[in-house]
């Protein structure tokens, strides 16, 4: 499965060989993070990400004792604010972990399929599963039967958790299924058969950091969906970075509204990170925008995670909303259009809009609007870069500096050679955040990993002389235009505004004035809508199929 997991054991070059301005080592053609290294548990130490998160709680607590924070860990936004405080949360996670072992027989290496929207039961289950060493395989409840079948084929779960609303989607797979809204789950959560309190721990002694913690699925926008295996150590490394920043600049207790679904990589991680930092997480479950904003106001939410459609809806919101406590919104899952970001900043000027993997083609350096903190990451690579100060956020169009404990290379796509500062190429990254690999997909692993545990991101990037990372383009979306017979020509899909008389010729003529001759659009298709995933990501594979079947015009 991919390359061997990176554990930080390679020896970095002496500091004298690394440019202190940008982290580049000319001898190895490698960029090193300019952030202070964050210590991690030794790779051989048996510990789960759940255990690690719990161990940080005392450090995140304002109390001088080792007791957990006294604020709520999770709040249900839908039920009028039902809350679980940290002492109760920790106790019930231990009970549930015990029940999963003794009553369901779950052990290290098992896989639990979770088909559910975000709900208050999910964080209890996630932490209990991680504690016993069972990998979590979360799926979008909107997944089709074909998609679920593919996910079962890849993850091979021994048990499934879902709601009564979605249970019918799992009936044909013959796996034991537990419903969140059932008496059985409530008994697992509250009734432990273990009597020896010394055994009622999180069983971290049998969980290795190299074990798979989660199996997260790609959206399949450019091909068949893949299953990324993310280890406990990868999540530990990501949490450690956030905790290091929190430790240095600890402020008032944060209240996070988790609008990103827990089955998505961003929502999954922020659920774990919230516990490690002792935050209060407000869980959103199938709520409309008005109810969500009311929940944010009622609970004094200071930060949110959201997909682009939610940010778009907020930017258009003209109803009452007292969100003066809101400090930041982290948007991910798909690129956020510049127009939407501008509109959001105008609507909520006091809020820092942080974009994960933001890329705005055509944005010029003179556009001095502040999206304040574009970050960059992926399911496969974790959090790769981000700005951590307002000064860094002013480096417009950049996605920040390389995160702690990361190394990177910029590799020329044609020659295959690593290049230096200011030169574009495919970004390769290496570090403990990177996934183990794709399950049962050696072809994809061979294309994704290079010798030495380097992950090929597929993004064309460059580092500037100050170590800031810039995304130029997506390698997989580049078109090498030889001729139509070769199967690659520039094409436009256009959705007309109501009443528009726009023609194919006008579209192609406009584009021809903006680009070099070889980049001119050769085909145009007018369609009713651009197909997108639930997170707002354009379904390019669907458009490619459309290109074959749709009658189009040629210049």
From TrEMBL:
Gene source species: Colocasia esculenta (Wild taro)
Positions of the AMP-binding enzyme C-terminal domain: 482-537
SUPFAM superfamilies for this protein: Acetyl-CoA synthetase-like
GO molecular function list: 4-coumarate-CoA ligase activity; ATP binding; trans-cinnamate-CoA ligase activity
Family membership: Belongs to the ATP-dependent AMP-binding enzyme family.
Keywords in alphabetical order: ATP-binding, Ligase, Nucleotide-binding
All copies of domain AMP-dependent synthetase/ligase, residue ranges: 68-439
Annotated InterPro entries: AMP-bd_C (IPR025110), AMP-bd_C_sf (IPR045851), AMP-binding_CS (IPR020845), AMP-dep_synth/lig_dom (IPR000873), ANL_N_sf (IPR042099)
Protein name as it appears in the record: 4-coumarate--CoA ligase
EC top class, as a word: ligase
EC number of the protein: 6.2.1.12
Domain of life: Eukaryota
GO biological process, one term: phenylpropanoid metabolic process
Catalytic activity as recorded in UniProt: (E)-4-coumarate + ATP + CoA = (E)-4-coumaroyl-CoA + AMP + diphosphate
PANTHER family hit by this protein: 4-COUMARATE--COA LIGASE-LIKE 7 (PTHR24096:SF377), LONG-CHAIN-FATTY-ACID--COA LIGASE (PTHR24096)
């Amino acid at each position: 499965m991919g390359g061997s997991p990176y554990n930080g054991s390679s020896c970095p070059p002496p500091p004298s060989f690394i440019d202190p301005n940008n982290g580049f080592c000319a001898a190895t053609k490698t960029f090193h993070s300019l952030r202070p290294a964050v210590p991690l548990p030794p790779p051989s130490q048996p510990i789960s990400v759940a255990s690690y998160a719990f161990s940080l709680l005392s450090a995140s607590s304002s109390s001088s004792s080792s007791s957990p924070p006294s604020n709520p860990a999770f709040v249900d936004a839908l039920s009028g604010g039902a809350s679980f405080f940290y002492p109760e949360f920790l106790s019930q996670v231990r009970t549930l972990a015990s029940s999963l072992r003794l009553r369901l027989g779950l052990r290290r290496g098992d896989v639990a399929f979770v088909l559910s929207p975000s709900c208050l039961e999910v964080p209890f289950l996630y932490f209990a599963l991680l504690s016993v060493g069972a990998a979590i395989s979360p799926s979008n409840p909107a997944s089709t039967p074909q998609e679920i079948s593919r996910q079962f084929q890849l993850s091979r779960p021994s048990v499934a958790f879902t709601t009564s609303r979605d249970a019918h989607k799992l009936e044909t797979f013959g796996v034991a299924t537990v419903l969140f809204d059932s008496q059985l789950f409530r008994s697992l959560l509250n009734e432990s058969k273990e009597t020896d309190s010394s055994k009622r721990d999180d069983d971290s002694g049998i969980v290795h950091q190299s074990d798979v913690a989660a199996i997260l699925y790609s959206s399949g926008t450019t091909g068949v969906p893949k299953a990324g295996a993310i280890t406990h150590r990868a999540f530990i490394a990501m949490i450690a970075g956030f905790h290091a920043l929190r430790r240095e600049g600890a402020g008032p207790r944060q209240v996070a509204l988790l609008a990103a679904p827990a089955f998505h990589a961003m929502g999954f991680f922020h659920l774990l990170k919230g516990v490690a930092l002792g935050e209060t997480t407000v869980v959103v479950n199938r709520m409309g925008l008005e109810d969500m904003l009311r929940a944010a106001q009622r609970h004094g939410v200071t930060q949110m995670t959201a997909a682009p459609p939610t940010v778009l809806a907020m930017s258009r919101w003209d109803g009452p909303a007292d969100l003066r406590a809101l400090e930041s919104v982290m948007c991910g899952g798909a690129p956020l259009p510049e127009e939407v970001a501008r509109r959001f900043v105008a609507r909520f000027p006091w809020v820092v809009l942080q974009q994960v993997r933001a890329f705005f083609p055509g944005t010029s350096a003179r556009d001095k609007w502040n999206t304040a903190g574009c970050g960059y990451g992926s399911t496969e690579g974790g959090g790769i870069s981000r700005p951590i100060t307002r000064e860094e956020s002013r480096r417009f169009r950049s996605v920040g500096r390389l995160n702690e404990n990361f190394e990177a290379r910029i590799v020329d796509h044609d020659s295959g050679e690593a290049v230096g500062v200011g030169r574009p190429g495919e970004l390769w990254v290496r570090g403990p955040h990177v996934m183990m690999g794709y399950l049962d997909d050696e072809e994809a692993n061979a294309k994704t990993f290079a010798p030495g545990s380097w992950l090929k991101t597929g993004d064309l990037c460059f580092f500037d002389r100050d170590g800031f990372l810039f995304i130029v383009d997506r390698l997989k979306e580049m078109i090498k235009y030889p001729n139509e017979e070769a199967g690659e020509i520039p094409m436009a899909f256009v959705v007309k505004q109501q009443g528009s008389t726009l023609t194919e010729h006008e579209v192609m003529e406009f584009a021809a004035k903006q680009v070099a001759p070889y980049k001119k659009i050769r085909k145009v298709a007018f369609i009713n809508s651009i197909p997108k995933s639930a997170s707002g990501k354009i379904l390019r594979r669907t458009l490619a199929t459309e290109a074959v079947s749709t009658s189009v015009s040629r210049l």
